[in-house]
Specification:
It is a single chain. This protein is an alpha/beta fold. It contains 21 helices and twelve strands. The strands form three sheets. A six-stranded mixed β-sheet has the order 8-9-10-6-11-12, with helices on both faces. A three-stranded antiparallel β-sheet has the order 1-2-3, covered by helices on one side. It starts with 13 loop residues before the first helix and ends in a 17-residue tail after the last helix.
């Protein structure tokens, strides 16, 4: 049986997960995951079906003991490993050994699953698992398995250690090797080494193994097993017959739990990471029409900072959101807060918020400011255009598009025009999207172009920042709905780092001209001031 439905890896989501730092976030909570396994895990468990997500949330409503989940996962892995070894057994002793280990692993798994499902359950899937465990325990064969597992070590005390003696030549090459004793045979045997009488026979547990050539020790295990079977032949045959009388119950159904238990372990570790950092988590509600959250945290940042303050975040479905503001004022953080939280919710996990209601998206598409193509055959601009083209072809009204600082490698006039066209196309296709940019003139371009109906779905958010003379920029890391301020505070930011126009321009005339230009451009925008910017379709 399975507690969680997984899918084949959805590679279309890979770039989005990398851009949103989902892999880093998962590994921060579950350090035993490699980058490869974390990515594969996320791609397999991303889900857009609200019913499946609700079933997963019920699992995490009922389960909170990470240690119990880890014990159950370790037990099911052990059972699978021992079954594989049993199938490869090539001799009677190994068959006995691994059959016994299979029985022990089976019993340990049942105990671990009982501990995991103890208490009151609301999840239908966990209730079904509990019924399976009850059926296993009620079966008379289960009592026989426990009895056989108890009898085996009494009938055949399996050695955990062998004590070995070796005779060597003066050159250091081994000539003989023998087992002096094991931890079952408690009687001390006369060692091969340092015998007082060279003609005396060895009293080693097994006869000495003669070395005929260097490196023959690679066959020591074969020698050891051969004589172990001979020494304990009677006991081995009794145990072999005993083990043939029972078989573990419902192993196929139990083994199917392996992936689901690993999923639960990762999810519970993520819960522990936020709880240990002092944050509240909630079970998302996937029945909303829009994203509506209360006291939502930026997940990645919350795990690095103590006492973060959450924010109310909303994202209407089919909306077009433009975010502008100063450098380092929280624009990208807001974008990633929404992206990471939605991905966590659509992995079926808890979210760091007081409440989180949303409509699941089918896919996520992202474009974060990129570098040159690794082959050096495509420019940075070319890479972004290719990505944007792919997004426009693939995205539907069921998807979410997140774009961060696009078109920074071309001139602002072209960049504004491209981004405006892009956002209008998304609006016309009812594709929910967010664009973070310093190109605030996109707002005025769209205001001039959009119909009244389109404008109802267009949202402009700004980050709130203030420049204090002598102290630098103060960022609140909060956003409000407003037309862009027309100032990214680039000059103020530069001044914070003691960079001024006077430092850059030696010529006083050029300095005055540059200062006047900055003041003028700060007060006007190219689509309300309009003339002379070469975009005729924006004029009245």
């Amino acid at each position: 049986m399975k507690l969680v439905v997984s899918h084949t890896e959805n590679t279309e989501l890979q770039q989005a997960f990398l851009d949103l730092d989902i892999i880093k976030l998962l590994r921060l909570c579950a350090p035993d995951l490699t980058e490869e396994t974390a990515l594969k895990w996320a791609l397999c468990y991303f889900e857009s079906d609200a019913a499946e997500l609700s079933a997963r949330y019920q699992l995490f409503h009922d389960l909170s003991d990470t240690a119990a989940a880890e014990a159950a996962y370790a037990a099911v892995c052990t059972l699978r490993e021992e079954l594989d070894k049993q199938k490869r057994s090539a001799d009677t002793f190994h068959e006995v050994l691994y059959t016994y280990r299979v029985l022990k692993a089976f019993l340990q798994l049942v105990e671990a699953l009982d501990a995991l499902t103890a208490g009151t359950l609301t999840s239908d899937r966990l209730k079904k698992l509990k019924v399976l465990l009850q059926d296993i325990r009620k079966d008379p064969v289960f009592a026989q398995i426990r009895s056989v597992a108890d009898q085996v070590p009494r009938t055949l005390p399996l050695s955990r250690h062998f004590y070995v003696g070796i005779n060597t030549r003066e050159t250091g090459d081994a000539t003989e090797i023998g087992v002096i004793r094991d931890d079952v045979e408690t009687t001390e045997s006369e060692p091969l080494l340092a015998q007082t009488a060279p003609s005396a026979s060895s009293t080693s547990l097994f006869p000495a193994m003669k070395y005929t050539r260097a490196g023959y020790g690679t066959h020591f295990e074969e020698y050891l097993l051969q004589h172990y079977e001979k020494h304990y032949h009677s006991e081995i045959m009794k145990v072999h017959k005993l083990l043939q009388s029972v078989r573990p119950l419902r192993t196929d159904e139990l083994l199917e739990l392996e992936d689901s238990l690993h999923y639960l372990v990762v999810g519970l570790k993520l819960k522990d990471a936020f709880t240990n950092a002092g944050y509240v988590l909630c079970l998302p509600d996937p029945s909303g029409e829009n994203l509506e959250s209360e006291a939502l945290m930026y997940p990645d940042l919350a795990l690095h900072l103590a006492h973060m303050e959450g924010k109310a975040v909303t994202l209407p479905t089919a909306s077009s959101t433009l975010i502008t503001g100063a450098n380092h004022s929280g624009k990208t953080s807001y974008l990633k807060t929404i992206g990471q939280s939605l991905v966590l919710a659509q992995l079926g996990l808890k979210v760091p918020a007081v409440s989180f209601r949303f409509r699941p998206f089918r896919r996520f598409h992202t474009l974060f400011s990129s570098g040159e193509d690794s082959s050096m055959t495509v420019s940075r601009m070319g890479v972004e255009i290719q990505r944007l083209s792919n997004i426009m072809q693939q995205a539907t009204a069921d998807d979410l598009v997140l774009i961060n600082e696009p078109m920074t490698s071309t001139n602002p006039i072209e960049a504004v025009s491209i981004c405006g066209d892009l956002m209008q196309r998304f609006l016309n296709s009812s594709i929910t999207h967010i664009v973070v940019t310093h190109l605030y003139d996109i707002y005025y371009l769209l205001k001039a172009r959009l119909s009244e109906e389109e404008a109802r779905h267009f949202i402009s958010l700004i980050t709130i920042s203030t420049f204090h003379e002598g102290e630098g920029m103060e960022h609140t890391y909060r956003l409000k709905e407003s037309a862009p301020l027309g100032n990214s505070y680039a000059m103020e930011t530069a001044k914070t780092f003691q960079i001024t126009l006077e430092d850059l321009l030696d010529d006083p005339a050029l300095m005055r001209e540059a200062s006047a230009y900055c003041r003028t451009e700060r007060e006007e925008n190219m689509y309300e001031g309009g003339a002379g910017h070469g975009l005729s379709d924006t004029r009245a």
